[in-house]
Amino acid sequence: MICSGIFDVLGVIALEYTREELVIGFGPSVEPLTRLFMSLTGAMLFTHMFGCFLMTLNRYTAVCHPLRHHAIWTASIVNVLLMIDIIVAFAAFIPLYSNNFVYEPCRNVVTVITEVACLILICLAIYAIRQYGNGIKADKSLILVTAINCVLSLLECIYDISFLLNIESESVAFLKWIANQYQAYSFLIMTSNAYSIVLLSGAVRQEILNRWRLPTPTTRLIMPATTIN
């Protein structure tokens, strides 16, 4: 989660730089910097996408499979998954460092699959929380934020599917509206996922504290020796 938040912040910075470059046009003198930020935009968004999927899967197993949750999400498994995510993200965008390339929207099937999977897991986790009833203390504020993120992810998913099916957004009023709002809800998704679950979920905060808490030194009580006459 912390790793995903760091890459989310870097992704937002890179994305805002590229937007300003498209509007202002800094010129060829800073072209290497623009190329770097453009490649970072794609790599950071890839880590964000996979990181959100891992966080969703983590919450799903915590709610629906609590007995197996700690056995599945060990520190070594999490570190391996994060390393694979980072390596694949940067390797996928190596061609952007070449001399000749063209920026164009791509039909990203992986994005659509992960977003749909996140939606399904979120719905299953919310359903499981409601089924437990009073046996579990559900954090209503977290559920509300999750529901909002679910709606935003659904809009982004529709936007990506329109590219996948090669549907012109100008010909459909709803798709045109989604395309016009894309920057707003993509920014909300990038920022809200990074902090909302930490601020609103006591269980997640406790897991983070337990993972990063330093071991407390144990004290030994030495009893004075007694003699029996």
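^ that was protein a. below is b, sequence first then the tokens
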Amino acid sequence: RLARQVGQTTNWASSWREALFQLLGDIPPVHRSSISSISIDGTSSTTLIIDRNNGELLAGPFLYNESFPDALPMVSSIAPANHTVCSGSSTLCKLVSWWNKNCSNGSNDSAILMHQSDWLLWLLHGEYGVCDYNNTLKSTRSSHWPNQRRCALTIWLFE
């Protein structure tokens, strides 16, 4: 039951976790041993920032339609013109905005950004760094971040 009334808030992360385990629990026991993999389809650009030490939610979730225009100047300075990350609702804008508000006094070594589907799968396998290829923000041709973005982002994030 995800319907909300005006003014009512929803704890999205808890509702996603609850729905995942409810669905898994609904699988008839006779079929469970034949399941070898699970795929989760999440909403693109819906992200969470968690503490890699304990899995606790540090921020978010930031929903796909939430915009963070405060991050656009920095993101636009390192991204190619008209790139998809130059939208206030991009994952990169969400990360940059959070970083500016929470890590201005230095880095936060325990923070890790995860997309919705990656976080839900993490709840099942517990391994950080496992990510849907489409969520990595890397070049689809080279499987790497373009040099100008990697350098600019690294310098900016870890100054």
